[in-house]
Each structure stands twice: as structure tokens, then as C-alpha cells.
Design a protein that fits this description.
- By secondary structure, this protein is mostly helical.
- The protein folds into two domains: 16-29 and 38-181, no CATH class; 185-239, no CATH class.
- 64% of the residues lie in helices and 0% in strands.
- Helix 2 crosses helix 5 (108-120).
- The longest helix has 38 residues, at 42-79.
- 13% of the residues are buried.
């Protein structure tokens, strides 16, 4: 039996009903599953899928654009201690932990993204960050910034490149294997106290100064390099 190639259908413009659903989906007070009824006709189910994915894409782009805005606000706070001191915080780290993370509910990883991207590209508009996406911008910012010649060519290319394509281009430019650049996530089972101990250590300004970075992965690498050889030597001597 011959199989026909299925070509993607062209996107349809949103009608007034779709626009209302889209607005409801993007409202913080809405139920995200109300738009879908599994008993609808196939055409309406596909239409629901189209509207829901449009909403998800729009929200993601808005979020990615706001990352630059958040980074700029936090940078201003960091450089003007009187701002957070009015709330009673003696240090920027305490302000971040107690006010932004615990009170405002923003994750530390999002904050690191926001500050890292803004500090690398303070002159770039939020719309550009949204178009490229936070994931790719996080990769790019570790290898170039607004002070580097040719950075705009990298950003322009990243608009249409996938993450893997951006990674490949960086590896080829820097002549390094992808394993030395690509990011990974380690999941470690530990107690809450151990987690807080590591966070406190990795976020300590003295540790960051010693390691010349705020990147937890690089701090962990420095820790292993610092104590690894000593521990193995101690084991060899004890054996």
C-alpha cells in the first residue's frame, strides 16, 4: 500500500471566538483545560489544539521577553543597595533569597537566567530575547556578549537555528567537542539541609569570587578539582 506524504496544514487566522478563548487561556484566573471537550468533532478538536498551542507559544515568548526586563531590574537593584535596604535587607543575596525567591515565588534558575542574559546583552531589546528564546540565549551568553565583535551575526543566526544547530556552530567556532559546552542536569537525592548547605555555599560571594563565576556547574568542577586529588591521595596512603 502506497503511503502519501502528509503535509502540514497552513495556520488559520484566529476568529473572534478563538481570540476570546486565547485571551481566557492567557488569564491567570482561567482553567487551562476548559477549552477542550473530547466529544467534539475531529475538526473542532484540531481547532482546540491549534488555539491552545498558540496560547502556549505566545505565553512562552512573553515570558522569554520578560526575562530581559527582570534581569535589568535586578541589575539596577544590585548596583543600588539603597533599593533593597529600604526593605531591611543588608545584602543583595538576602534580598534575592527572601524577597524575590520566597516572597515573589521566582525560581533561582530563572533569576540566574535573567541576570546572566541581561549582563551579557544589556543593550538588546526584550523582543530579540523572546525571538531567540531563553534556552538558546543561555548557551550563547556563555560564549559571547555585546562587547564581542561579531556577536550580532551569532544572534541573528540563532533566530532560525535550533539549539543543536547553535551548539554545533559554537563548537566549530571554538574548536571544542560539544561535551565541553552542552549543558546537562544532575538530579541528586539529598536532604533539605544538604540542599540548603550547597546553595548557601555556591551562592556565597566569597566562593564566587574564588571560582570567578556564579555558575554552579563550574563551582562544582572547581570543588572536585580542589579536593579530588587530595582525597584519592589520602585513600592511597591509608590503603
Amino acid at each position: 500500500m502506497e503511503t502519501k506524504e502528509i503535509k502540514p496544514s497552513p495556520p488559520h487566522p484566529l476568529n473572534s471566538e478563538d481570540q476570546k478563548i486565547l485571551a481566557d487561556l492567557c488569564s491567570p484566573d482561567s482553567e487551562t483545560n476548559f477549552v477542550f471537550d473530547p466529544k467534539q468533532s475531529p475538526a473542532n478538536i484540531l481547532r482546540s489544539l491549534y488555539v491552545a498551542t498558540r496560547a502556549a507559544t505566545w505565553l512562552e515568548r512573553r515570558r522569554d521577553g520578560l526575562i530581559q526586563v527582570i534581569g535589568r531590574i535586578l541589575s539596577v537593584c544590585k548596583n543600588n543597595p539603597d533599593i533593597y535596604q529600604t526593605l531591611g535587607y543588608k545584602s543583595f543575596d538576602a534580598f534575592i533569597k527572601k524577597h524575590v525567591v520566597e516572597a515573589l515565588g521566582m525560581s533561582k534558575s530563572t533569576l540566574r537566567d535573567a541576570m546572566g542574559i541581561y549582563e551579557a546583552f544589556p543593550d538588546k531589546p526584550p523582543s530579540l530575547i523572546a525571538e531567540i528564546g531563553v534556552t538558546k540565549m543561555n548557551l550563547i551568553r556563555r560564549h559571547t556578549n555585546s562587547d564581542q565583535p561579531g556577536h550580532m551575526a551569532i544572534l541573528e543566526a540563532a533566530k532560525t537555528q535550533s539549539y543543536r544547530e547553535v551548539l554545533k556552530a559554537i563548537c566549530e567556532r571554538e574548536n571544542v567537542p560539544s561535551g565541553e559546552i552542552d549543558r546537562a542536569v544532575i538530579v541528586i537525592q539529598c536532604t533539605v539541609a544538604q540542599k540548603e548547605m550547597f546553595e548557601s555555599f555556591a551562592d556565597d560571594p566569597r566562593v564566587r569570587s574564588m571560582c570567578q563565576t556564579e555558575d554552579w556547574g563550574l563551582i562544582l568542577e572547581n570543588m572536585i578539582a580542589e579536593v579530588g586529588a587530595e582525597w584519592l591521595q589520602d585513600v592511597a596512603v591509608a590503603g
